Amino acid sequence: MTQQIPPDPDSTSKDGLRKLILRLPTAISEVVKDKTAQWTNSSKLREERIALDWKEAAVNAVKAEIEDLLRRKAAHGGIAEPWTEAELKLAEEITDATRKAEISNITRTEAYWQFYEQYPEVHWAFLAHMVSRNAGWWMTDLKGSRLQNVLDEEGKQSFYRFFERSNALIFQDAYPQLLLYAKSRELGRSLFHLLPHFHVSRFMQPFWERFWIDRSSPLLTVGLIINEQNYIDKQVFRHPHYQISMDDFNESALIQLLGMNHIIFPLRENSGDEDGLKECESAADGQDCPESGNVHRLAGRSVVNPVSLPARIALGKSLYAMLFGLRAVHSGAQRFAASVPHTGSRADYWPDLFTANPAEALTPAVQGSELPEGETLPGGQRLYSPKLTDAWGDAPYEPILREDWFKDWGALNGISAPQPPYLCDISREHRYGITKAALPEGAAD
After folding, report:
1. What is residue 172's predicted lDDT score, i.e. its pLDDT?
2. Is residue 424 a contact partner of residue 302, using CB atoms and an 8 Å limit?
3. What whole-number distance in Å separates Cα of residue 341 and Cα of residue 277?
4. Alpha carbon of 289 to those of 33, 276, 429: distances in Å?
5. Which residues lie across from 298 on neighbouring strands?
6. At what angle do helices 56-76 and 217-232 cross, to 10 degrees?
7. Rounded to whole angstroms, how far apart are CA atoms 162 and 241?
8. End-to-end Cα distance, the chain
9. Which is more confidently placed, 285 or 373?
10. Alpha-carbon distance 3 to 65, whole Å?
11. Is residue 420 helix, strand or coil?
């Protein structure tokens, strides 16, 4: 019987190092190519700028009102003025409308878009719609083929609850504010003294009152970004249940690997076929909508440090300046939002790479070997990205503490003019993350 000689560890290490060295020139070349393409494509997106109407006089007025609120709170405490019976009835109508619209990420995302179509001066609603689409994609990623053998069920549930709770809480806080503005427009008078009825932070009233006077969209958007990120900071990021998950989230290479750290704005080209896309709304469950293609560019940013409150506020302002300050991004994202219904599947924007139909998808075992260098996969051989309604059921929430986060002068720090980033095209970076995650060795690494 021949004795088997165990492999020499030094020899194995040397072979691995040799392979790594041989691959370095190709890897470096790919990095250079990707960065060059990112700069080139970002330059094209930045060619035509839209001036954001940032009014320093309005900013100073809002800051002065916020400082006055803090002084009055310290001196007298917070005492809400009494509301009339008619005002309470109106507030109850808004509460009911919010409850009907907050059922799921799908209904919330649609509610933001419908509001923006009616009131395009409220820029935040469109930004919220696009970011809410991303939340849906992250949630369905957890049930897609790329994660099937990477995360256990407990890990998937943990990440899902984090994404869903963040999305739901922002809507719960912000949507009544939007509807209160709509009612104010309808009645022709400011109703923002009712904000406390919805447990909205005192921080927001000066922003809405100023917006009612001068329609300063950027200032209101910045105020809402600061408010919503502070609101979920304690409810999610510093909540004892989610603290463990967020420690993993902030350090996990898995998140970067899956492209789940990307907030993307799909940009649909002006193909002149707007009517054909409406047929997607009546497509059968699980069927792709090939007409929803024509998305060749993705604008967006990477989420570098989601645990940091200042970093999240800065990211929100950067995304806003990109979405409303760059004409190519704004028009492309608006065409996409208007023509492609949100399902939660990544097939919404890349139907040539993803499918919501499991019968037409590659299995995790073969998807890595089948994923080509190109941008597409043939029909019947695509990555599985389910619709949100197929991936997750309703999830009960833990009790929500309705406490005003606004307590000190630190809230003023984020009130500054938003600026779009230089690197705003994320197409190749996002595609690389998807490709890497689909490779078995990439997921294992």
Report:
1. 95
2. no
3. 9
4. 32, 10, 24
5. 266
6. 40
7. 9
8. 38
9. 373
10. 84
11. coil
